[in-house]
Amino acid sequence: MDKRVVITGMGVISPVGNDVPTFWKNLLDGVCGIEYIEEFSNNNLPVSIAGIVKDFRAEDYGMDKPFVRKQDLFTQYGVAAAYQAVKQSGLVSTGEGKNIDPFRFGVYFGSGIGGFATQFREISKMIEDPSGQWISPLFIPTMISNIAAGHIAIINQAKGPCLDIVTACATSTNAMGEAFRAIKHGYADAIITGGSENATIPIGIAGFANAKALSRATDPKYASLPFNANRAGFVMGDGSAALVLEEYEHAKARGAEIIGELVGYGNTCDAYHSTAPRPDGTTQAKCISLALEEAMFDKEKDVLYINAHGTGTKLNDAAETLAYKIALGDFAYKAHISSIKSMTGHMFGAAGAAEAIATLLALKDGVCPPTINLDTPDPECDLDYTPNKAVKADLTLGISDSFGFGGHDACVAFRKCLD
Predict the structure, then answer these.
(1) pTM
(2) CA dist., res. 40 & res. 405, Å (int)
(3) What residues pair up with 110 in beta bridges, in sequence order?
(4) Would you kindly state where each structural domain of the chain is located, as residue ranges?
(5) How distant, in Å, are the alpha carbons of 9, 60, 121, 124 from that of 57?
(6) What is the C-alpha to C-alpha distance for residues 21 and 359, in angstroms, rounded to an integer?
(7) Across the chain, how many H-helices and E-strands are there?
(8) Which of 44, 232, 263, 303 can pair with 295 through a Cys bridge, CB separation 3.0 to 4.6 Å?
(9) Which helix (H) or strand (E) holds 291?
């Protein structure tokens, strides 16, 4: 018999806040976290803005100085988000207060790129001295993309299934979906899931900019423009987000606070192009339809919120709008939709998990966060994208979708847990 899967913990490190309450308040208030990049000299780079994590202190999340010295920021962000999520969940896998079998406690946590800053630093050394004698012995275990998952498992003594999902911008949505299936089918009682990214470094900016993916806007507060006719590319964003998924009866038996229920997952591939989305929206629509079908979506009864991928690129936003129309038919015009990337920028491997948190809180609080700066809607993007101001709604179902380079499509669906 399939198990029910609920959310008992959440954590976030983001351009608009380093804890869930701050993150959520700033989203509802339409606060833009995109700033000028000050961490490195960028005078010769074509892009000078990004969604930057601010005031991050690793020690606030249980990390000591020796650990921090050895870890790329993407791992530190991941550990910090997981720290918050596990703390909220109340799960303890060892010692006094143990309330979960460590072999039934897993980690499904990914990164689109991994230790990008570490790669950049160490490769620069190799170029200067091809002998390689100055390459750090910690280079490999610091840059590999699975290392955040590994450290989250070590810290929390999660000895069950541990996977690093890598599907570009769909990474953490796929991680959540696969964790959902693992619990649903009985392979674990709880899984820490999500993603982390720190890609705002010179080579990251140069690579995405030269691929014609980034906005070259000079005003950071009017740069990430999902569904806007003036959009000209996405804005990079850093951070991490984590959720604790738990089997319903296990959570109920220990008296855990249940935030919401994960009720559906879709996973398809565009099978079209390495970077461009399938323009007719058909494969993205199938992904969304699969999640809605598993969630038992009812057009007659449900009030739907969609947290859109909404990157602000010309191709994505148009294809995504078509996908909603294919998946939902005329109901697409009744759905409440928004893109929080208008405020956070694109957090790559962390984006899906951060957007899932926003979706869960929208359901919980009955309010849809806005798509800010939507002052000139694209006629091709003619759905209700919640322009500029948060909107109250008696929501019953929420979905969050993510579409990544390589054609990876993923969608998760949530409901309030009513019993």
Answers:
(1) 0.97
(2) 27
(3) 195
(4) 5-260, 263-415
(5) 21, 6, 22, 27
(6) 14
(7) 13, 14
(8) 263
(9) helix 282-294
CA distances from 210 to 7, 213, 233 (A): 39, 7, 12
For 276-320, the pLDDT digits (tens) are 999 999 999 999 999 999 999 999 999 999 999 999 999 999 999
| Distance in angstroms (rounded) separating the CA atoms of residues 47 and 289 | 37
pLDDT over threshold 70, residue 41: no
Q: Is 322 helix (H, G, I), strand (E, B) or coil?
A: helix
Cα–Cα nearest to 408, from 272, 224, 210: 272
CA distance 415 to 395: 9
What's the CA gap between 72 and 114, in Å, rounded? 9
Q: Could you give the maximum distance between any two Cα atoms of the chain, in Å?
A: 68
DSSP β-bridge partners for residue 239: 197
Residue 384 vs residues 81, 127, 226, 316, 391: alpha-carbon distances, Å:
31, 51, 12, 17, 11
At 84-123, the pLDDT tens digits run 999 999 999 999 899 999 999 999 999 999 999 999 999 9
Question: Taking a C-beta distance cutoff of 8 angstroms, is the pair 151, 111 a contact?
Answer: no
Distance CA 310, CA 330 (A): 20
160-176 tens-digit pLDDT: 999 999 999 999 999 99
3-state secondary structure 187-243: CCCEEEEEEEECCCCHHHHHHHHHCCCECCCCCHHHCCCCCECCCCCECEECEEEEE
Q: CA 324 to CA 255: how far, in whole Å?
A: 38
C-alpha 92/C-alpha 82 separation (Å) is 13
Which contiguous run of DSSP H or E holds residue 228? none
In a 13 Å sphere around the CA of 130, the CA atoms on its Cβ side amount to 0
Considering the domain delimited by 263-415, tell me its CATH architecture. 3-Layer(aba) Sandwich (3.40)
The radius of gyration computed from the CA coordinates of the chain, to the nearest angstrom, equals 20
Identity of the amino acid at 286: K
Identify the burial level of 232 via C-beta atoms within 10 angstroms of its C-beta, where 0-12 means exposed, 13-18 middle and 19 or more buried.
middle
Q: Are 266 and 111 in contact (CB under 8 A)?
A: no
What are 337's strand-pairing partners?
Answer: 306
Summarize pLDDT for 222-256 with one digit per residue, the tens. Answer: 999 999 999 999 999 999 999 999 999 999 999 99
DSSP state of 126: H
Q: How far apart are CA 163 and CA 202, in angstroms?
A: 29
CATH no. of 5-260: 3.40.47.10
- Residue 39: per-residue pLDDT: 82
| Residues 177-190: tens digit of each pLDDT | 999 999 999 999 99
Do domains 5-260 and 263-415 share one topology? The answer is: yes
